[in-house]
Amino acid sequence: QVQLVESGGGLVQPGGSLRLSCAASGIRLTFYFMGWYYQAPGKQRELVAAIAPDGSTNYTDSVKGRFTISRDNIKNTMSLQMNSLKPEDTAVYYCYARLAGRDATWGQGTRVTVSS
To answer: Does residue 97 contact residue 33 with C-beta atoms inside 8 Å?
Structure first.
């Protein structure tokens, strides 16, 4: 019954913005480490951003200053605000949640396409 569902992906022009959301059911995210990975065709899945239970964050260098990860423990959701989008941001984005030292639960992914 544990499930993560992403939403908010779509087609956007370079320089535009999208906000991805990840809604959890079956678990309460309060004590989970959470984040987003992305995967482009022919490439391995890579970490984009992560947020710890205490609110501390970490970003891959390519998105620093453009993306912001946040969590809302009351709504039991986690989001990724994506600004100044570039074509190289095009990928399927997956949210995850895990307890320390345990395997992660993954969402099904949401597609982001940045193109004119």
So the answer is: yes
Q: How many angstroms separate the CA atoms of 112 and 93, rounded?
A: 7
Q: What does the block give as tokens for 88?
A: 């190289």
Query: In sequence order, what are the residues at sequence separation of 6 or more whose Cβ sits closer than 8 angstroms to the Cβ of residue 68?
Result: 80, 81, 83
Residues of the chain with pLDDT under 50: none
Residue type, 105: T
The pLDDT assigned to 1 comes to: 81
CA angle 73/79/83 to nearest 5° reads: 150
Q: What is the pLDDT of residue 66?
A: 98
CB contact at 8 A, 12 and 112: yes
- Spatial distance between the Cα atoms of 80 and 67, rounded to a whole number of angstroms: 7
Closest to 51 in 3D by CA, of 62, 35, 64, 38: 35
